[in-house]
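Why this split exists: single-chain examples teach little about how molecules sit against one another. For that reason, every record in the complexes split bundles all components of an assembly together and asks for one structure covering all of them. Below is a record exactly as it appears in the raw files.
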Amino acid sequence: MKQKRIGLTGAHAAALAMKQINPDVVAAYPITPQTPIMERFAEYVANGKVDTELIRVESEHSAMSACIGSSAAGARTMTATSANGLALMTEIVYIAPSYRLPIVMNLVNRALSGPINIHCDHSDAMLVRDSGWVMLFSENAQEVYDNNFIALRTAEDSRVLLPVMINQDGFITSHSLETLEVGEDKEMHEFVGEYNPRYSLLDTDNPHTLGPLDLYDYYFEHKRQQAEAMMHADRVIREYMKQYSELVNRPIDVVEPYRLDDAEFVYVAMNSTAGTLRVVVDMLRDKGVRAGLLKIRLYRPFPWRDVKSLLGDKHKIVVLDRALSPGATGGALYQDVRSSLYGLSTPIVAGYVYGLGGREFTEEQGLRIYEELRDLDDNEPFQRFMGVRE
Amino acid sequence: MIEIIIHGRGGEGAKTAAFMLAEAAILEGLYAQAFPEYGPERSGAPVRAFVRISDKPIYTHSPITNPDIVVVINPTLIDRKENYDGLKDKGVVILNTDKPINLGFDEWILDATRISLDTLGRPITNIPMMGALIRATSIVKPESFEEVIKTHLAGKGEETVHKNIEAFKRSIQEVKHV
Amino acid sequence: MSNEKGWKELPIGGRILNPGNSKEFKTGDWRSKKPVVDKSKCTGCLLCRLYCPENAIHIDKDGKISIDYDHCKGCGICSSVCPVKAIKMEEEK
């Protein structure tokens, strides 16, 4: 497929993907740092570049509610938000997967207050970790763009029918211009195709009820179905990643190993930090340290088999969380990685919390993590911090 | 990889200059990254914008601390010593000034304020300073940057595009190596 | 509960694919008091039918009303609004 190499911010990459998908309905409310996605998409609507019905609502709670109504009606539906906006819509965020509605949302990761902060961390994503959305993370603008197409196909697949959330780091990715390859509108739209909803409330020939009271006699069964759909998503998203990867001729997978084969010291991270850690791995390799990296691109469903097979024989693993789980046995990603490796010949798995509220993560910090852990030989789930002033 | 920091005052177009330079590099088939300082946006306060340009994909997302090039687009910021912190040994400094100065770096100077007043009628020095940068470092071809000026300012009319290209070309001619 | 369908057979997302099936749910057994109509007093004004939250008031051929005891929950609103006191609430036996 013909592609063009251009420069876009992560936010504008999301908006371009949304334009090429040309959804039936977008309902959203502006919030920093999601704003440039909606600004750019509103321009596309105003200039007639898309056929989308853009619903300007009065809050994020309404945004997700409108998305649920439109998706239940059988319309291809997208939205975007950040942090406190996501917190306000959380009640409805849980309803989307429960009703099995394939909504796609771009989440521009920002710290949840307080104290009030507009900069990047992953506390917003972790708030809705167990809501039942499929969650993708994006290292850069390219992955933001690609993830949107993969997300939509996965969400709408009749084996899945779950909403999908595409994460990108607030400001670091959303407001930075980066080099990426994009396809032509027509061909990218062809990849997602026309949407034929399995259920539509507007299908008067097959009327049905959605959203009735669901008590102890059925609720558990519906939740069990959701768990099953999430397991299907693990398989289905790989199919679309492969298909998309062949289309754009770039390797794409649920996890991405970097210099991992003979690595003894392995970093695990998500979003933009994974890019910085590639450079750190190269710097350590130049010094003769066998360092490697595993980037997690698909966070829910968590690809534990991949983590287990890629990291099971490693000596020391350090997992970086950009969100604090106070009082827990380490950050959320740390717990997932550590659980995936449980019972193996006990590699040492250490965890760091870093970059809260937009605190920068530098190559120097990446190197310092190696220095701090070089001689570590216990495996306590001790929460370490990088980049905080003592 | 070349790393650049642009210093200006909020509202003067340091971020726009950074984005335009990165886009010019991408037009030439290079890889680039551009990002503003993510602080509260305050008109008139000192702000920074960052650019990375490379012939290989750029992976890092850390801020730039050891630039190859420092550009100061506002003359009132030239005296701030912290602008030049971390500048590499053979680093280049490009200053907007109407006085001959020597700070002890490999310096290029341009009276970008006068050029922008002459051509645009307003002291918008970001595009002239990119002209100076391109002349001093050949980091991208002038034609590539002119292409970006055209696409960026297309919505503001042909006259604006023309005046900015004139300012850009004059800057390339008038910049001086100290 | 063990006779109900398992998660593999149920429609997803809590959907009900056969609309109107609330008729199958006989709510009449929730009742502790039942409305009894005195046909000699009923004028067929149908105010009770407008107020009934369960749509359990039927219109007979003579234009007067009778109660659908399969679905009437015994709330007593019909008795309360009847302008001619034609509906009495009696203890369920």
